[in-house]
Amino acid sequence: MITLTRNKPLVLVLLLVFAIISYLSIGGQSIGVCYGRNGDKLPSPSDVINLYKSNGIGSMRIYDPNPDTLQALRGSGIELILDVPNPNLESLAADASAAATWVQDNVVNYASDVSFRYIAVGNEVLPTTDSTAQYVNYVLPAMKNIQSAITSAGLQDQIKVSTATYSPVVSNPYPPSHGSFGDGVSSFINPIISFLVENGSPLLANIYPYFSYTGDKQNIQLPYALFTAQGVQVQDDNLQYQNLFDALLDALYAALEKAGAANLRIVVSESGWPSEGDPDATVDNAKTYYTNLINHVKEGSTPRRPGQAIETYLFAMFDENQKRGLETEKHFGLFTPTQESKYQISFS
After folding, report:
1. Which H helix or E strand runs over 206?
2. Residue 348: what pLDDT?
3. Residue 126: which residues within 8 A CB-CB, separation 6 or more?
4. Distance CA 130, CA 138 (A)
5. β-sheet bridge partners, residue 161
6. How far apart are CA 36 and CA 193, in angstroms?
7. 227, 293 contact by CB (below 8 A)
8. Pairing mode, if any, of strands 239-241 and 234-236?
9. Per 3-state DSSP, what percentage of the chain is helix, strand, and coil (rounded to 5)?
């Protein structure tokens, strides 16, 4: 038994240890960056890994199991989100042996010296999204088969299986406490939530204040999206919001609470701001957003989850000129293909 009168030095040491643990779990959150390869003249995977390490970037997300990238990650200590691409979901959902082979080839064969953290089974699949609705019936079965293969390999405590959703999964996001899963998505997302809770996995979510702002400029001000607004912008019962990122994240937390998953953690698997392709997509705005987001997630938390670190992955490492869609999609990079920083920001 420890007594306060006779063991003051020991008590002080224990208090210091607890303080350090609290800091590590709340502040000092490592920043990840997503590494997409849909661009011309990008650096080799080994050069990309060195670029991560030289900039103190401790986590990475990749969107397919590229062997050269996985090989370059060996021994790097960089923690990894590995995606199962949407077109692969059907085959992995239908055949457990195919999922076992996928895990063996892309995870087990590298797991001794690659720090896998999450497997993202599908990205932004929703029944209400035309481009991904075709994959809805395959996400959860594929997650279950991947989970079984991870468990069979004895990696279930090291690697968590999830899927990456995004803000449109939430209905009524304003104010954040009104967030819920509407009729169009609840039958899809609720079983996934149950799976995540059962397996102790977080929900991955792509959170983009840029798209929320540009989609509703009449009601959302630019400073609120860039973390530069002064004072409280949204009063939500007893919670106060000064930035849109927290509001979007807490709307998703509110929806999880209504779905009976109040303790499910969210990992922000993408967030970024483009530098070209739209009047609000400027280098200055992008630098402001990335700088303020990094500072916020390293030091802060959301009003609905005070004291809980926000594990966050910035999108993206490089501009990707081969991406389809809006012009802005090609200009989310933090670095040029020649490995020069576009914004001169600190990740550590």
Report:
1. strand 203-206
2. 79
3. 132, 133, 136, 165, 166, 168, 169, 185, 188
4. 15
5. 119
6. 27
7. yes
8. antiparallel
9. 45, 15, 40
The pLDDT tens digits of the residues spanning 230-271 come to 999 999 999 999 999 999 999 999 999 999 999 999 999 999
Residue 9 CB-half CA count within 13 A: 0
Query: For residue 116, which of 76, 89, 166, 173 has the smallest C-alpha distance?
Result: 76
Contacts of 113 (CB under 8 A, 6+ apart): 74, 75
State how far Cα 155 lies from the chain centre: 21
Of 270, 276, 320, 327, the active-site residue reads 270
Sign of CA dihedral 89, 95, 100, 102: negative
Are 55 and 78 contacting, i.e. CB atoms less than 8 angstroms apart?
Answer: no
Predicted structure pTM score: 0.92
The span from the CA of 309 to the CA of 25, in Å, is 6
Q: Residue 17: CA atoms inside 13 Å, Cβ hemisphere, count? A: 6
pLDDT, one tens digit per residue, over 12-43 is 333 333 333 333 333 446 699 999 999 999 99
Q: Are 310 and 301 within 8 A, CB to CB? A: yes
Contacts of 185 (CB under 8 A, 6+ apart): 126, 127, 128, 169, 171
The structure tokens 């062997």 sit at 67
Using an 8 Å Cβ cutoff, are 99 and 91 in contact? no
The phi and psi torsions of 268 (rounded to 5 degrees) equal -80, 100
Best CA proximity match to 33, nearest among 11, 14, 49, 17: 49
CB neighbours (10 Å) of residue 82?
25
In whole angstroms, what separates CA 132 from the centre of its chain?
19
**Cα separation of 202 and 117, whole Å?**
11
- 177 CA to centre of own chain: 21
Q: Note if 270 is an active site residue.
A: yes
CA gap 158, 338 in Å, rounded: 34
Q: Which residue has the tokens 């005070």?
A: 306
Question: In degrees, to the nearest 5, what angle opens at C-alpha 345 toward C-alphas 43 and 176?
Answer: 105
Q: Among the options 79, 90, 124, 340, which is catalytic?
A: 124
Active site residue 124: yes
DSSP, res 175: S
